[in-house]
Structure formats: structure tokens, C-alpha cells
Amino acid sequence: MAASSVIINEMLMNQLKLNEVTMENIKLDIVNTINEQIRNLEKQISDITSENTKLKLQVDIITYKNNQLETELQDTKDVATLSLQRVNDLEQWTRRSSVRIYGLPDNQHESFTESINKSLDVFDKIGVQMPPEHIGIAHRLGPFKVGKCRGIIVKFISRKDKFNVMKNRRNLKGSNITIREDLTRINSQLLHKTLISPLAFQTWSIEGVIYAKLVNEKIIKVYQHTNIEKALDDNNMPVSRINHTLYPNQSSLRVMRISPKQRQVLWTNLVIMTRLHQSQIEPKKISNPVFESTPRQAGQSTNLTSYFSPIATTTTKRVQLT
């Protein structure tokens, strides 16, 4: 029995040693397998990183080329805009001795001589005496249409005659006849765009340059890139303009004392009202925001917001806040 126990113990010990060796081999195999997988993953990560670096380089190259194209495109736009402006200025320069007359009776077969005589009659009305030989050319604009009066373009030999006509054209006030500068299409569109703006109190042109007197009494030159809203950088609207624009009832303003803060509130409301009003009407039928005022009772506090009551009123070509 003792000998058999020893043999059994030896067998168990051998088996345990064998198992330990087997476990060590298994562990080693597992470690080798994991290390191999880690090396493969590291290689894949390295490949991916290298690929990402190449892609990033390609993206940088494409971005650089795109920026170059955008710069070239912007330069081309700037050159085109400058060229268009120069062509427009050159065309306007060729019209520096011309005016246009609107409102004269028209007929289908009006001759050159008739157009000159009608123009001379208008010049006589405004107090400018001019012999026919001072006019280089005068003719109707566009094809004849029944029920419509075409304008007459008049080109003078001397610019002095044009200056005299433009200086005295105000004498036609109250009649159906108007005299305007001969503007290019671009300048004419710019004048019309400025004319229908509720933020422009008056609009006119001098030697092809468009001017506008804003509702805050600031006079600016208007170009294609001009933003009239940004030009209104003075929130202190003068009392004279408030009086003329917002308060038709003069007595209500006499009893008021407008502080700078109240003036700023009033000006802000005016801009808001004009924008809202402009967004609700057609461009060709501009109606200006006119505000009613209620006379303040003695001892009553001034609440400026209560004075605002928009009234839609249709106007003629010249838009004025009255």
C-alpha cells in the first residue's frame, strides 16, 4: 500500500508538472498571438495615418488652389466692376452737354426743327434766351406711342447753355414739364433707386453724380455700392426734421421738450416704421410713413411711442416725408 501511494503521488506530481508546462506554453502562445495582432494593428494604424497625411496634403493643395481661384475670381470681378464704372463714367462724360425734357406734347411725325422749337419755347419759359444755333441736336426718345409723350433730348454746343438751363429749371415748378440731366442707364437706375427710398428726403443729380438728402438732413453722394441705411449714422435727428416729418400739428411740438434719449427713441422708431412700411408696398407705389401727433395736455408726461400712428399715403415720383 505504501509503495502504491508513492507511485500515485509521483504520477500526480508528474501530471502537475506537465500541466504547468502546458499552461506556460498556452500562455506563451496567447501572448505571441496578441503581440502579432498588436503589430498588425499598429501597421494598419501607421498605414491609415500615412494615408490621412497624404489626403490632408491633397486637401491643403486643393484648398490653396481654391483660394487662388477665388482670389482670381474676385480680382476679375473687381476689374470688371472698375471697367464698367469707367465705361459708365466715359459715357456720362459724353452726355455732359445734354438735357432731357419731359411733358411736351408729342406727335408721330415730329421733325428735328419742331423738337428744337418746342425746346426753345421751354427755355424761354424759364428765362433762358437761346438762339437755335446753340443747339447741336434735339429729337424725341424712343418710338411713338399713342397716349404717351416721349421725352426730348437736347444737346447744346456749349456747356454754358446747359448750366443756365439746369440753374433755371426750377421756374417750371407747378407745370407738367420737367428738365433733367441726360444720365446713363446705370446712373438713371441709381437715381430711381435712391428716389424711391423712404430714407432719402430729396434726390438730385449734378454732372452725372447722384446726391441724396437723407431724413436726418445729411447730404451724401450715392454710388452703386452706397448703403443708405449705413449712411444714417447720426441718431440725433434735428428738431426741424422731426417737426417737418413727424408732427403735422405744430402746436403739439411747441409744448414738448425732447431730450437726447427721447430723440434717439423717436429716430429709431422712424427707421423701423419706414422699413416695415417699405416691405409691405410695391416699389413703384411708394407710400411714406406719416405720423399723427396728439396734443399733450398740461401736466401730462410725454410718451413718445404713443405719438406713432402710421398712415399710408400714396405719393408721386418724388418721395418726400411730409
Short structural description:
By secondary structure, the chain is α+β, with helices and mostly antiparallel strands. The protein contains 8 helices and 9 strands.
Which features would summarize this protein structure in a list?
single chain; 322 residues; Alpha-Beta Plaits; 3 domains; 8 helices
Structural notes for this entry:
With 322 residues, this protein is of the alpha+beta class. It folds into three domains: 94 residues; 86 residues, L1 transposable element, RRM domain (Alpha-Beta Plaits), CATH 3.30.70.1820; 80 residues, no CATH class. The protein is 51% helix and 15% strand. It is built from eight helices and nine strands. The protein has a four-stranded antiparallel β-sheet with strand order 2-3-1-4. A hairpin with a 2-residue loop joins strand 5 and strand 6. It is rod-shaped, with a radius of gyration of 42 Å. The chain starts with a helix and ends in an 8-residue tail after the last strand.
Q: Provide the structure class.
A: alpha+beta
Distance between the termini: 132 Å
Number of H/I helices = 8
Taking pLDDT < 50 over at least 5 consecutive residues as the criterion, the unreliable ranges are 235-258, 281-322
Largest beta sheet, briefly? Answer: 4 strands, antiparallel
Gyration radius, rounded: 42 Å
**Adjacency order of strands in the biggest sheet:** 2-3-1-4
| Shape, principal axes of CA atoms | rod-shaped
Q: How many domain units?
A: 3
Helix content range: 40-55%
What is the count of β-strands?
9
User: What string gives the helices and strands in order?
Assistant: HEHEEHEHEEEHHHHEE
Mean pLDDT: 76
Beta-strand percentage range: 5-15%
